[in-house]
Amino acid sequence: MSLMQHETEVPGWAVERGRHLNEFDAIHPATTALVVVDMQNVFMNEEEAYGNPYAIGVLPQVNRLASCLREAGGTVIWTRQTVSQEAPLAMPHWQYDLRIPEVRHAVETMGPGTRSQALHAETQPAEGDPIIDKYRYNAFVCPARGLERTLEGSPIEMLIFVGTLTNICIESTARDANMLGYKVIVVSDACAAKTDAEHNAALLNLRIGFADVKDTATICDLLA
């Protein structure tokens, strides 16, 4: 699958409107976690149900950010979207339309421990990085409480989000992170959606009310 990069555009008026709510020009590694959302085979390999060239395209930035934050003394957390048929982890039956071939295939192949559910081979988790299975798009409302438990009792005050999809798992989790009191940054060139329109719509909404939006180079410069 060829590498593709989004044409990212966050309007100046959205930046100005959101500036008084979320503007972070310093990153303190000891109280910061990079949350790498769903960089899995199912979203990144061409032959998979939801293979997306934009997702594979952000791999270099994701790995660079993980390295920068880790070297600075921060925390890196990885999530994996996962399907279960067992309550309370199972999604409501009406939310997955199994008549759609891609949906049926994903449900059948994204159980814990499968190849589709696994992180892509070119991601770079380090020993000791938490890897969390999440059973909802929003990691904070997941009944398994993996992200919540990982952050509970920690000194983490800021969450930096990267991965896929910008407008689904990242946006929904970042909104709740803000509402829970975390400082939130979303990295524009390290997130992927299916189209530029969806990617940019999510970044616009996040910048207005829920998060700062910066690029990879800026984050690494702040960490340096």
Strand content: 15-25%
Mean pLDDT: 96
Poorly predicted regions are none
User: For the terminal residues, how far apart are their CA atoms?
Assistant: 33 Å
SSE pattern:
HEHHHEHEHEHEHEH
| Helical fraction | 25-40%
Tally of helical runs: 9
Radius of gyration: 17 Å
What's the shape? Answer: globular
Secondary-structure-based class equals: alpha/beta
Strand order of the largest sheet: 3-2-1-4-5-6
Tell me the major beta sheet: 6 strands, parallel
Produce the secondary structure layout:
Elements lengths: L11 H8 L12 E6 L3 H4 L8 H5 L1 H14 L2 E7 L19 H9 L21 E4 L11 H6 L6 E7 L1 H14 L3 E10 L3 H14 L2 E3 L1 H8 L1
Helix pairs in contact: 1-8, 4-9, 7-8
Brief account:
With 224 residues, the chain is of the alpha/beta class. Helices cover 37% and strands 17% of the residues. It has a six-stranded parallel β-sheet, sandwiched between helices.
What descriptive keywords fit this protein?
224 residues; alpha/beta; 6-stranded parallel beta sheet; 6 strands
Structure in words:
With 224 residues, this protein is α/β, with parallel strands linked by helices. 37% of the residues lie in helices and 17% in strands. The protein has nine helices and six strands, in the order αβαααβαβαβαβαβα. It has helices spanning 12-19, 41-44, 53-57, 59-72, 101-109, 146-151, 166-179, 196-209, 216-223; strands at 32-37, 75-81, 131-134, 158-164, 183-192, 212-214. The chain has a six-stranded parallel beta sheet, sandwiched between helices. Helix 7 (166-179) links the parallel strand 4 (158-164) and strand 5. Helix 7 (166-179) packs parallel to helix 8 (196-209). The longest helix has 14 residues, at 59-72. The protein is globular and about 45 Å long. The two termini are 33 Å apart. 41% of the residues are buried.
